[in-house]
Specification:
It contains 14 helices and 31 strands. The chain is of the alpha/beta class. The protein has two domains: 390 residues, Glycosidases (TIM Barrel); 113 residues, Golgi alpha-mannosidase II (Immunoglobulin-like), CATH 2.60.40. The protein has an eight-stranded parallel barrel with strand order 14-15-18-19-20-21-22-23. Strands 1, 2, 3, 4, 7 and 8 form a six-stranded antiparallel β-sheet that branches. The protein has a six-stranded antiparallel β-sheet with strand order 24-25-26-31-28-29, covered by helices on one side. A hairpin with a 7-residue loop joins β5 and β6. The termini are far apart.
Amino acid sequence: MLRDLKPTDRIGDFEVRPGYYEMDGASPVRGGVNFTISSFTATSCTLLLFHNNKRRPYAQIPFPDSYKVGNTYSMIVFGLEIDKFEYAYSFDGPYDPEKGLIFNKDMYVLDPYAKAVTGQSNWGERQPDQCVYKARVVFNDYDWGNFTAPSIPLEELIIYEMHVRGFTYDQSSGVKNRGTFAGIREKIPYLKELGVNAVELMPIFEFDENGAYRNFEGEQLYDYWGYNTVCFFAPNTSYEADHEHNREGTELKLLIRELKSNGIEVILDVVFNHTAEGNEMGPFFSFKGIDNNIYYMLTPDGKYYNFSGCGNVLNCNHPIVRDFIRNCLRYWVTEYKIDGFRFDLASILGRNEDGTPMDQPPLLKSLAFDPILGKTKLIAEAWDAGGLYQVGSFPSWNRWAEWNGKYRDDLRRFLKGDGGLAWAAAHRLTGSKDLYDPSYRGNCASVNFLTCHDGFTLWDMYSYNEKHNYKNGWNNTDGANDNNSWNCGVEGDTDDPGINALRLRMVKNAFATLMCSRGAALFPAGDEFCNTQFGNNNAYCQDNITSWLDWSRKEKYSDVFEFFKYMIALRKRFHVITKNRRACTCTFPPESLHSAQPWKTDFTHESRMVGVMYAGSSDGIKGLDEIVYFGINAHWERTDIELPGLPTGYTWKLYVDTGRSADRVICEYDNIMLYNRRLSMEGRSVIVAVAHKIF
């Protein structure tokens, strides 16, 4: 408990005293507010106070020299009511751009530790002074009580990636609070029905959606995805239905609590590789005004490295920046009970101050062994825009998992029928052991995905051969060109019933593959009802129906939705799919690979049939084996296969066959027994068969 303190000095109209130097940011204390901020090179710092929503400060309070300890300024200002003011800072110091020193005492500087940022409460409403950000002091009184997290093992996660606004903003969502944290809360029954056990929220840290431009047709574009962070400790206020700055994200906490109470973990997509300040042509509102040459990775002449593709790169392995990132993650884990983080362009986090990759990056190691983050899931997007690609080699300390880009690429190609990929497909299905040593990493390293926010949706992957990004304003030069997609014969929408039926089958094939692969599984919101972005594979700036989910498609593609539900439930039901269990009573290994003939893996360039069998003893019934077979026929022609022989007393039962008519794909309850172990698989189809005990 903070002791009662009395003022020791008076500056203008304010009574002040030295503050708490280890309390970063602005915090309520008895009788006032404690302000603490650090700069390595600044010569002075001034606290600026603003009346709410005003453009100019009503008070400027310079930190006395005696209030500076080391490089840290700290001051308690008495008599402030936290709901009656906003604040910022100004710093003075040397100006030498070639050395990265660009102090400007006339610029307002946002507190990097601010818990609430003002000026962007309503989505799309530009503030009067572009890139002038102020903060409010928040009062954290949310009581989590004895709340406990679901604590789901990473390899059992079924992660649902969503954009807070896009998930519910379209009228078809049917929610009251569209495009907000509260809107997601209204959809929790839907998430439970679908069966996912984790949501991954695209960036929710404060960002300025107005930081984009207009396209060639004059349409307003937005920084819709939110990957240009303004403040790392503050939730994006425009995602709140009630724009109340001083309650420290209560609406978000309510969402997190309700999700977790329903068995759904919460993962945040975080961006520590760059910020919204951009390069030397970009705005000046935070780190540039505090210690530009420390927070950003600079070239020898003071310019900005650009391994992010967004103008600047955070200098993540500098001790000051490293501590900032760790403090930020600790804050979200302790105050918001976040279960995990997905790190955008995480390879940047392993670069040295000169941009070179490091063998033992201090930041990554410190996060891996941090005691507060000890149970937190750490997931790396193991590449960056500077050409560093580390899938399978990202420094892990057996703590870091990876978005498995090779899973996406290999299985996309295999599923559409490319040759020479049978072995690659077999590896990806069984946990990518060629990338992740199972004796060290187990099944906890690979986060498998076929689609995500970045690229085609699953429906578009089988509707377009080429990207169609013209509305982004870059003459279709933006976005990836190597999509490994296939339009099934016609580019875009078609009335051809044969092509549409094939597309639906390919969608089901892909999702069944994802659910029957070892490793965590991730898919983006809307894939379960064939969401489309009309061929746009880089919809980062599209705040419209291109990015918003059209919930009317759930009814139109109800059979796909039901298939997704079924496959998610099947993955949860048969635990041998996700990890090794106790050994079978028979001699089957935990997993085995097969071609059209059981136990044969003489794959050639023309091989397009791969089967995997998972086996282990049942968790629930003593003496019962749990055996699941998953097979992919990626060939365009029918293929006759034979399943492995089973122990005495067991026979194969067909659960899923996408080669059947749409209303019969889920065939578990049709009692199709494969006594002779033979099956003729339609071209471009998958099957799931389960060993049944014959009593």
